[in-house]
Specification:
seven-stranded mixed sheet, 2 domains, SH3 type barrels, 31% strand, single chain, five-stranded antiparallel sheet, BirA Bifunctional Protein, domain 2, 7 helices, globular
Length: 269
């Protein structure tokens, strides 16, 4: 259980002040936050729960959200940025989550573009950002974060083996402390996102914290499916993949390590 009163007190002078929405069980915090955002809920509204019965990740994938085992939280952001900069939001959310895990569990996170949180070769969390633009301007973004905290067993058929913070740290990690660290880091990263001078450094910071952004053979899944070698991020946070037919700018989808036996290719090749 979370101490909601303590959270309200800790963030009394923040973007989250008076905007905490806790339920013990819900279908999906992102679904709840999306409905609230469409109804006009303000910037900094936080929706969190102990258990999700219909948790989801990117691409309609499910997210196992057992009671009391993980961190399941979604935050409404209405940042003052251009529509072209909206794709940076998943990256700043990844930075915030990685920082929170480092603070609470003392473990380094490898950010697998665009939304996976890995410790070593095992996945401990993921990010789902759902956004809406209005009349050509940013409307809102719902940043959903799911992190395995106390889990000890996982589905053996997962495409990426999973782990939890308590397993990796060798001790029990406080979900309450993790939530505080995440919200503090997300607030800081949101301020950076809205500052032109700091925004330019976001992609470089992500690349520094990720072994996947450069010189990694990957297989891209999604509309721009291809196999090649990663070649960095562009200014919007899109992944560049070098194939035998040239550079592919991957705007959406996911990546996995590609076997050496798979030939480089590009869409339409």
């Amino acid at each position: 259980m979370y101490d909601v009163a303590a959270l309200e007190s800790a963030f009394a002078h923040s973007i989250y002040s008076g905007k905490f929405h806790y339920t013990a069980v819900t279908g999906s915090t992102n679904t709840d936050a999306l409905a609230a955002a469409r109804a006009g809920a303000p910037h900094g509204s936080v929706f969190f729960t102990d258990e999700q019965t219909a948790g989801r990740g990117r691409g309609d994938h499910g997210w196992q959200s057992a009671a009391g085992q993980g961190l399941y939280v979604s935050v409404i952001l209405r940042p003052s940025i251009a529509v072209a900069d909206m794709p940076l939001i998943p990256l700043v959310a990844g930075l915030a989550a990685a920082q929170a895990i480092g603070i609470t569990a003392a473990r380094q996170v490898d950010l697998r573009w665009p939304n996976d949180l890995l410790i070593g070769d095992r996945k401990t969390g993921g990010i789902l950002v759902e956004s809406k633009t209005e009349s050509g301007a940013p409307g809102f973004a719902v940043v959903g974060v799911g992190i395995n905290v106390h889990q000890r067993s996982f589905d053996p058929d997962l495409s990426t083996p999973a782990t939890s913070l308590s397993i990796e740290a060798g001790r029990t990690i406080s979900r309450h402390a993790l939530l505080i660290s995440l919200l503090e880091s997300l607030q800081h990263e949101t301020w950076a996102l809205q500052d032109p001078g700091l925004r330019a450094a976001i992609t470089a910071r992500v690349a520094f914290m990720s072994s996947w952004i450069s010189n990694r053979r990957v297989e891209v899944h999604g509309p721009q499916a291809c196999i090649g070698t990663t070649a960095g991020l562009d200014e919007h946070g899109f992944l560049l993949v070098r194939t035998k037919n040239g550079i592919v700018t991957v705007q959406t989808g996911g990546i996995r390590a590609a076997g050496e036996d798979k030939e480089d290719n590009a869409p339409g090749s």
